[in-house]
Design brief:
Blueprint (H helix, E strand, L loop, with lengths): L1 H57 L26 E2 L2 H13 L4 E6 L10 H14 L4 E9 L7 E9 L2 H17 L10 H18 L1 E2 L22 H4 L5 E2 L1 H14 L4 E6 L7 E6 L8 E3 L1 H6 L15 E4 L10 H10 L1
Parallel strand pairs: 1-2, 5-6
Antiparallel strand pairs: 2-4, 3-4, 7-8, 8-9, 9-10
Helix pairs in contact: 2-3, 2-9, 3-9, 4-7, 5-7
Length: about 350
């Protein structure tokens, strides 16, 4: 009888151990399920985060823009005296661009007498035009631009003050370019591979070509002087502004360059092919690997394809052509000299 009792206790102990083991297994299984659920929640949260990021980019306003424009040449690192003395046209043009990149459209300096042109503002006007190769916004009035002989035998005083027609349009263009780059982020740390940079530039080329059509006003040789450059579709705003869908070559090229610069691509806006009746504008890119600069002409590529708003077909006949092999684009000599100097 005693033996039987002991065996019964053993059975009860074994059963208890089995029940505890089953409970532990159930807890383990429950923990596994909870871990899977948590992973699922992380995935869902990540998806929601991506959606939120996309929504955030869409909701960006001009208040979200970086205060200063992109500086792909790192020109803002340059230091100047309060009233610098400038001896050549290239130095003056660089100083103008340096001020513009800091958001200053009013500045003073001293010029050599070789730049005086009989004490006229010709050198200052040229400097502002040259600076637009990287500053890109050209719809301004020369509110106050002059040189003055103030009795100094070694130099003369010079002042520039520009007044922009519709600065809010330029902000809208900047916002359009900034949004594009936020939606299509370039490599962290910038481009270092030629092909990768070229493919990113190709996407910008296609985006601009597909977004707008060429405006017939570009074929008219005599555009009324009273019209602003926005009204004749020459600004980046005419491509990147909200509800804008038509531009001429200058608008195409400025919009392309603006997006490139926000992406960190060294891209300039250039003009040339000038005759008494017409002129043209396009882009030059200085690749990240230091190789030969290349030409991009979005306007002509758009004209060679199905030029409709929202088109899918884009031509590449004038995309990334080495400058040494191009014979159809002749850059303005003074602008070419400045762009080469500033590199």
């Amino acid at each position: 009888m005693e033996r039987t009792k002991i065996n019964g206790n053993r059975i009860r102990i074994i059963l208890l151990i089995l029940l505890i083991s089953m409970g532990l297994f159930g807890c383990t299984a429950g923990n596994d399920h909870e871990e899977i659920s948590t992973t699922s929640e992380i995935t869902d949260t990540h998806s929601e985060s991506e959606t939120a990021d996309t929504q955030t980019v869409t909701d960006l306003t001009v208040e979200d823009l970086p205060t200063l424009l992109p500086d792909v040449l790192k020109l803002r690192e340059k230091k100047y005296e309060d009233m610098p003395f400038l001896e050549t046209q290239e130095q003056l043009s660089e100083y103008a661009l340096w001020n513009f990149l800091y958001g200053r459209t009013e500045f003073e300096c001293r010029l050599s007498w070789d730049l005086s042109y009989n004490v006229t503002a010709a050198a200052l006007e040229q400097a502002c035009e040259d600076a637009m190769s990287y500053y890109l916004f050209s719809s301004y009035t020369a509110w106050d631009m002059y040189t003055e002989d103030d009795g100094n035998p070694d130099s003369l005083f010079a002042k520039v003050k520009l007044l922009y027609d519709e600065p809010e349009f330029d902000l809208e263009a900047r916002l359009g370019a900034f949004r594009y780059v936020m939606k299509n982020p370039p490599p962290e740390g910038g481009f270092s591979d030629y092909d990768e940079e070229m493919e990113y530039a190709r996407k910008i080329h296609d985006y601009v070509a597909c977004k707008v059509t060429y405006n017939p006003i570009g074929y008219e040789p005599n555009i009324p002087v009273s019209q602003t450059r926005y009204e004749v579709y020459q600004e980046a705003y005419n491509v990147l502004g909200e509800n804008q869908d038509t531009a001429i070559c200058a608008g195409y090229a400025r919009a392309f360059a603006l997006i490139c610069q926000y992406a960190g691509i060294n891209c300039a806006w250039v003009r040339g092919n000038e005759t008494e009746e017409s002129s043209h504008a396009w882009n030059v890119i200085y690749p990240c690997d230091g190789s030969e600069p290349v030409l991009v002409d979005v306007t002509w590529d758009d004209g060679l394809s199905d030029d409709t708003v929202g088109q899918n077909d884009v031509d590449y006949s004038y995309f990334y052509i080495p400058l040494s092999s191009d014979y159809e684009h002749e850059m303005d000599e003074k602008m070419a000299s400045f762009i080469q100097y500033i590199q």
